[in-house]
Amino acid sequence: MRVVCALMGLLLVPLCYLTVWELVKSTTAAFITGMMLVCETGTLVLSQYILLDPPLLFFIMAATYCTARFINCRDEPFDLEWWYWLTLSGMFIGCSFSVKWVGLFIIALVGLTTVKDLWDLMGDLRLSVAQIQKHFLARAVCLIIWPILLYFSVFCFHFLVLSHSGNGDGFFSSEFQSTLVGNDLYDQKVPEYVAYGSVITLKNRRGGGGLLHSHTHLYPEDLGEYQQQQITAYTHKDDNNKWLVKKTNSHAPLPGANSSIEDVEFIRNGDQIVLEHVMTKRNLHAHHQKAPMTPTHYQVTGYGENGVGDANDIWVVEILGSSGSGNHGDQVRTVTSVLKLRHLNLGCYLHSHSTQLPKWGWEQLEVTCNPQASDRNNLWNVEGNVHDLLPHVSFEFYKPSIFSKFLESHLVMAESNNNMKPKEGEITSKPWHWPINLQGQVFSGGDHRVYLLGNPIIFWGCGLLKILFVVVVMLKLFARQRGYLQRMRNEIQAELDVFTSNGLWLLVGWALHYLPFYLMGRVLYFHHYFPALMFSIMLAGVTIEYSIRLLTALLHPALKPLFYHTSVAVVLFITVVSFLFFMPLAYGMSGPKSDNPESSMYGLKWLPDWDILAIV
Amino acid sequence: MEAEGVMRKRLLPRSKQAGEDASPASRSPVTRSPQPGVSLLSPHHRLPVPSPSSSSSPVTIWFPYTRERPWLTFTTEVNLLWWLALALSFLTRFWRIDFPHYVVFDEVHFGKFASYYLTRTFFFDVHPPLGKLIFAALGYSTGFNGSFLFTTIGLEYPHEVPFVLMRSASGLAGSLLVPCIYQIMVELGFSHRAAFLASLFTILDNSLIIQSRVIMLDSFVIFLSYLSVLCYLKFYHLRHRPFSGEWHRGLIYTGLSLGTLLGVKYTGLLGLGCVGLLTLCDLWQLIADTTIDLLDFLLHFLLRGVYMLGIPLVISLILFFIHFTVLTNSGPGNAFVSKPFRNTLIGTVETTSEPIHLSPNTTLLRYGSHVSLKSTDALCWLHSHPHLYPLKYPDDRGSSYQQQVTCYEFADINNLWEVRRPLGPGGVAGAGSDSHDPVRNKDLVELVHINTSKILNSHDVAAPLTPTHQEVAGYVNYSSQFVPHLEWRLEVTGVPDGSPVFHERGKLKLKLIHEHSKQTLACTGKRLPEWAFQQYEVVTERDVSSTTAVWSLEDVVLPPPSNATAWAEEERLIREKTQNPGTGSAKSEDEDDDSQETLNFWEKYVELQVHMATAHGNLGEHQFGATPHNWPLMGKLLPYWLDEKGNAQVTLIGNPVMWWVASVGIVVFLAVTAVHLLRRRREIFDLPHAEFHQWWTSGSVLLVGWLAHYLPYFLLSRVLFLHHYLPAVPFKLMLLAAVCEHFYAWLKRFPRTTLSPIHTLVSLSSSLRHLLPRLRPVPHWLPVLLASHS
To answer: Which residues form the MIR domain (chain A) (predicted)?
Structure first.
């Protein structure tokens, strides 16, 4: 698998080379870009291991290349080549989005390019509206519908392969779980209705909602006078999620082992029940006290000794029928009945949401009692149901369609993506660290140390060239606004136009793959920068080549070839030498640290933050 | 300001052509400028000029002296629409403004600050002084002495508090907003009909009404933001006569309104950004004008910068000068500022100094002294309290479960430590351990926390936030695996080893090296979580030369002398013996001004700005805090006040129909513009050039205004409320009016159209007025209708 990843990483180089060639049609620029990418140690490290990054980078670059090719076919629309590259761009867009959601950014780039392209077509009055519609439809089909189909089929495949129950179950709804082989809910292994004496688990109906959970730990003392047992929602299956359904009169006998099925009493809509936590024998309880994280809600606790509590343990079962509220006397069905649990004394509803408890609650989800009845997160369903006396009636569970499964898994993914918070003490990085290569990421410690760090020469060089490029664009805009540009010779103008417009396209690509990270709440790592880096390197290659060409033009004709070739050679030389210096980072270092003269990295620790765990 | 803007409103001759040949009749400045024939074919989009509308401009008083007209012709024109809007806005803002007679929401803060001004008590607030000074001045004018402190929401106002007058200041600003809106619409080239519609929307928006009826700063902010946009637009239309008197005056007015805006609240930066963006666009177009050479262009650039940034700076300086002049007594703000700053206030008390006599001048540091140590890097004191480190951190690392040692920014009795000789093996006190000998450089010492009697310890346990460093704790004896290593080596630089240490408040810098691990005590400057009350983390650091490891000796309380004369003699001898006189005598000269050091105005100004800028982020969570994406659709309301007896309440809520419709209006604007652009691209011109140009540029100005007052909040991590959105709202309402007018104009092309969207909207909004009473169950409080419903 490492070989495949390495192959994908390898293919990045020709892709970059070809993209640059497509854009500016300059072999020199393309070659410089290719060499810079080859010598970029960070990309090298990333493509050596089984990570999602090599395929992601490959698909992104492939989509970029195909788009560039496609744009260059614009003179002969609707011929075979045109269709070929259009379809291929769509395919690679779909692929990159299927690998990681970062693929969204390449979609944005291709989308913007297409919009610009269509805008140009609109301005061409030789084309009839019907022709433009045709253009539009072709792009819509190939760049929108086709990738979506691809993405969707990847997910279908995912469900098909992962048809067995596993540790991801708890994140999904009960309906979803009933399609998983090996899950308790698969193949009708549970009683149909819930009765008094059933041991149940309760699942919050929110996408990614947890199971009602309790454990022996108490709420911390600074949260109020009552220091009672914590109630949380937990996304994993656990014996601590089990609750016994009891009558409010705790002395009323529950049907025992020797009673018959006639003694079993089912729970109906409007019944008052008490839920006892099986492991700790405490009852689900709420009282007039602020919830720990959500001060507008009431706190929910576990209360009582051996199942004996007080009046605040009583909850009223409300079943939501298809019409909103069920009829009085409806029985509670496993999985399919949607319930609300109303606290009898406070009138609030059992509620769970995505707010996590702090470390005293093991970062499980908060469970509260919500005074607002209509909140969507007040809905629960019975997931597990165990009762000794009840037969496991065979009935058809509501099996979700592939579409609702698809939707649900996305909800869960989005939820967990946003909740990815750094563990304390973990080294995380901020987006502004990345372009300046402030700190790397440790890939492997121990004797054979691998450290993900970009080649600083290339990183900083790219940064400087980016600034140079922006300055050139500003100067060009200024000159155009003042009317100076129009006075220049035509071929200079044309060259400048090719340079700035293609450079701008690459700059936008870079910005689209980089800037959105500033808005993300989740934990970020250095390797998130590498898609942007591809664009950065291409822009650098283009800029270097253009500046050398510009300088050459100023010289005496006799010196021109000499100067041009020397400069290119110098650039390539610097790139290769910097690679030789920083190569040990990628291929693994053993032996002494960088402060030791014998180390392969001696003297190369240029920034103090490069030694996070004293690796370099 | 506003009235003048209106009065100078030009009178355009009734015929449209007359404007071009600068008719002698018009002496008013604006009309004399040549009417630019706006050509859309040029690439330079300019803001449109106010359309010479058939309906008259508000008021014009005219003293033309020309051959055609006799002396002293007096002509007036009264724009009834304008006056109607003004009257309505005053009516809605001031109607029973005294209700409720209780402290509402943030009146708690701003009323309190006004009281502090009146009692000249120093306080700290993140907002600049102008708004609060206005409230204070109004209070002062009625003889209110500041004795009422607006402590909690719902407190009934005593008779002597002029809260109605204070609220009226808000009300006035809120009322004057409406003519501003009207005028901006006219300046942007919309018809008077659209201008009136926009004003009407503004008048009827509940949230703006409520905000104009409470003692808060937002009403000023909203008014001044729009005033500065208006001033800028007026200035912009003078661009054909650069560097003329009016041109300068226009810039000065813009600068003044921006300055007052920034003097009220720093969110005014958004207003500045908005005007700044418009200025930059204007400058960009100026570049294209090849008749202006580059030097002139530079002058254009610089003058705008000087007026628009310089005037606000001057205003800010003046305001803070007043602020410091008024607030001479020390008060609740003391804790936020530095010691030298506090020294400028009358009656400064040091919280720790009550039972303690501070050692005068340089004295010998003796064993048994009680000292406080301040980190010179993080400016906080070494602190401990009777709370333990949590047993486990969320990442499953364990702690020592011993007493927390932190660094605390404020003076506190828990910052005091006793310097003690280390106990001998087995905890047995060695000989002479209770004698108060001088402490010598490189001595081994123990630091005992006075209030809890725990001894400063460090051990090989990862620190809470910085796992690469050792944790520092107050040693708790669990008789378990943790062997205490309580000895610290005290190191003073520049003093020979073994020579006695002279102490002098705040000047003695020292390091404490943990003897067992050879690491040094340091403050990382990271804030610990709630379990340590957000105080700073203290660790030991491997790098002994780290700057975070330098502590200064602050308070020192010497043990009571057993024999005072013997001590004095000993001290004198040591002083003589010390070869380096610089440590002792030289320092004692500047001794006095050390603790008496004060700051001048500039230093105080800078320090306060820094504190204000950094304090914003430290506001905690709030129950009614709302995130920006909730705002346009009003996802979360903000309760201002709740009657304790009845169920009357004041809640900040926008006019729901208008907010939602206006949010849709933005989408409609974008869609319509996109359709127009596409059709124009195909060379289908539905609108004449000028009309489309006006729609496109003016609409964009409004859209940019809305975005500039809205989007930046997404980047802010502090707690935000619905009322932060209010400055953006009128832009949205104006855009809605513009969209309405556009559709109206479009419909008018079809003959015999009876349906006018404007009429529909007017009736819609008026029906809303009738709808509102039903939304609330206390109908006899008429004024509250506008401001609240339950």
So the answer is: 191-248, 264-320, 329-385
